[in-house]
Amino acid sequence: MRINAHWQAPSRTLLGPGPSNVPPPVLAAMALPTIGHLDPVFLELMDETMDLLRFVFRTENTLTFPVSGTGSAGMECAFVNLVEPGDSVVICVHGVFGERMCDVASRCGAEVTRVDAAWGKAIDPDDLRTTVAAAAPKIVAIVHAETSTGVLQPMEEISAIAHEAGALLLMDCVTSLGGVDVRLDDWGVDIAYSGTQKCLSCPPGLAPISFSVDAEAAMDARQCKVASWYLDVSMIRNYWGQERAYHHTAPINAIYGLREALRLVAEEGLEARQARHSRQSRALQAGIEAMGLGMFVAPEYRLPSLNTVRIPEGADDATTRAYLLRRYGLEIGGGLGPVKGQVWRVGLMGASCTEENVLFFLLALEQALKAQGVKVGSGVAAAQRSWDRETE
Amino acid sequence: MRINAHWQAPSRTLLGPGPSNVPPPVLAAMALPTIGHLDPVFLELMDETMDLLRFVFRTENTLTFPVSGTGSAGMECAFVNLVEPGDSVVICVHGVFGERMCDVASRCGAEVTRVDAAWGKAIDPDDLRTTVAAAAPKIVAIVHAETSTGVLQPMEEISAIAHEAGALLLMDCVTSLGGVDVRLDDWGVDIAYSGTQKCLSCPPGLAPISFSVDAEAAMDARQCKVASWYLDVSMIRNYWGQERAYHHTAPINAIYGLREALRLVAEEGLEARQARHSRQSRALQAGIEAMGLGMFVAPEYRLPSLNTVRIPEGADDATTRAYLLRRYGLEIGGGLGPVKGQVWRVGLMGASCTEENVLFFLLALEQALKAQGVKVGSGVAAAQRSWDRETE
Question: Quick check: B74 pLDDT over 70?
Fold first, then answer.
């Protein structure tokens, strides 16, 4: 077995659906010496991490902490703690992650009723209203930022419908937290989870999660044990809370990294960060359209952190992405499910969301398409005009 | 909210039940730039990681990979994939982690039958034989190295009993892998999981796991879906296998760290590493006994990587540990469950398992006890004689 003792990661510009590029201070924090999970110094760091998570989630929920797994573990933690076998759950499906919710909730024993929207569209509140009236759900679940389609779901009306029906609102904000406006308390979100490797620009491995007082009450009222020992919040909260009771060994260095990533978010400010994501996404869209390509999602529902671009005629999906990666070290994502081969997914998340990267992407894509004989214009001037307009 | 932008981890000598001290090259690997989870360069790294895991597990099992969670997620992954509701499972309980297995397996719907041994003792094969004959289990589960008691369980006879009864053998080797002899194929272990923060000296966050061909067949024969989406090996194996199908975003940087930690194990060699763990543990035991203190476990069952020391009369558990941490930056563990307040758990794991640390611990403990007015001798000369004997 020959294992290279001097392996170095290649240089990559990460403009895919996540992970995004991780800033050097976050990487440096990941490499600080490991200390014990019950060390008083680490317990302080946990408190700071929870405070910072409340800040980015815009919530006062006490029960706000990072799950020891990736974003999908966050999804599972949300459902497995709230759902008991036979519970009615309404799930809004407008992409892969809504589909995943149905699978996860079903495995928890939920009676799942779906509300579907076409890929690339948002959920129609009227459809949800009708379904909720019939299903009388305990939980309404929805993806705020669909990473598979690039749709940003407006939340206020969804929330009103869920709460009027007496349901808890569960929201996936994996691709919005830290890059797009997310307001748990203003929106009345009862359970929200995210990932670290998107707009927070931290390596993957943790899933920030938050539970409202109502969600805590629903968990306390459970009749049967949570099916997952590892994700059982009734025990985990005694480690993150004041009891500090050992449950499982926390992923120490990942939490070092998350704390630093969140600190950088706080340093930039949420509004400034959201404005940056919007500004760069608008420039990218302007460039794409100037090249003669089209966006997949209607303007009013476009997600700044994940931009879905229609693959033009004559271009091959895999060839283009391989060209970008090999020639430029530039990663973008392919489509999933029904839009595989039809769209590219271009992430502008956290530290990856810069003017430099937008320009680099537009130029690199132009070259990749021309190499395949696809005639396109240049997007650079249009992107430049977009930035100029915003700074006037 | 005031968050220190220049936080540094305190200097700690980690001689508790894990995490152990992480070598600088592993920390450096954790800080390499994050790349995509489908990047061809990362896929190669995954293959190397799997090869290295097979090497340390001493197995040829194809299905050998790190679960994206801590050691307890490994335990849950093992049970949730093998157990279907109503399955008979015999679980050997001789400490906290056997107890935890019962809880985890029950949540998966197993009909659990226990075989108990007193804390500090190994499981008696005759007890297992009797229980297995009555319970006709699908799985026999056992902890190889009980982190809560410091007992190393002999495996050969346990394995024979399980296989004669047609059961699969499931083994927890969280605190043995990489420090103590572990042989999946020779011992006929069908499912084994571990953690990274013990004898592998990697930060916590991943759980190496391995499934035999028979375990794979049992999973393929399942009638119902695995209750956990996140830990469903029927999907995860398509990412770690040749299909490379996206399931969840792998914890990239944690895998960088694990690969480097495993590379260091391979560089040292398994035999040399095991000999080192035995040698330092013997010296520590000699020192402890020379001080006039006692070990909790009988000599033939002592686990080199986790040494349980009886707390002497007149010494306070918490006071002693706080003294060691504050005065010397030295972490050891307290007892759990029925031995809380009766024993200390002194880990000698991976990079923490050095002659220097044994001496440091013996001297520091002596001071901590004297500060409480407890009369003890010095353990240093006895430890020194132990090392001298071995190098003669």
Answer: yes
Spatial separation of the C-alpha atoms in residues B140 and A35, rounded to whole Å: 35
Please write the tens of the pLDDT for every residue from B180-231: 999 999 999 999 999 999 999 999 999 999 999 999 999 999 999 999 999 9
Taking a C-beta distance cutoff of 8 angstroms, is the pair A320, A370 a contact?
Answer: no
CB–CB contact A27 B10 (8 Å): no
- Which residues does chain A have within 8 Å of residue B19's beta carbon, measured at their own beta carbons? 34-37, 249, 252
Q: Are A300 and A154 in contact (CB under 8 A)?
A: no
Q: What is the mean pLDDT of residues B280-293?
A: 98
To the nearest 10°, report the CA torsion of B103, B107, B110, B116.
Answer: 0
H-type helices in chain B, by residue range? 24-30, 40-57, 71-82, 96-107, 125-135, 156-164, 184-187, 213-220, 233-240, 252-268, 270-290, 317-328, 355-370, 380-391
B349 interaction partners in chain A (CB closer than 8 Å): none
CA distance B164 to chain A (A): 31
User: B188 CA to chain A: closest CA distance, Å?
Assistant: 24
Mean pLDDT of B297-325: 98
CATH topology of domain B24-267: Aspartate Aminotransferase; domain 2 (3.40.640)
Domain ranges of chain A: 24-267, 270-391
Which of A28, A39, A103 lies nearest to residue B229, judging by beta carbons? A103
CB contact (8 A) between residue A204 and residue B108 = no
Half-sphere exposure of A218 (CA within 13 A, CB side): 22
Low-confidence ranges of chain A (pLDDT < 50): none
Tally C-beta pairs within 8 A across A and B. Answer: 244
Q: How far apart are CA A134 and CA A115, in angstroms?
A: 12
The pTM is what?
A: 0.98
Residues of A in contact with B226 (CB under 8 A): 107
Question: Given an 8 Å threshold on Cβ–Cβ distance, is B267 in contact with A14?
Answer: no
Topology at the third CATH level for domain A270-391? Aspartate Aminotransferase, domain 1 (3.90.1150)
Q: Quick check: ipTM above 0.85?
A: yes
Q: How far is CA A210 from CA A72, A82, A184, A213, A391, in A?
A: 15, 12, 9, 10, 36
Mutate to test the interface with A, among B37, B200, B248 (most CBs of A within 10 A): B248
Beta-carbon separation of A229 and B104 below 8 A: yes
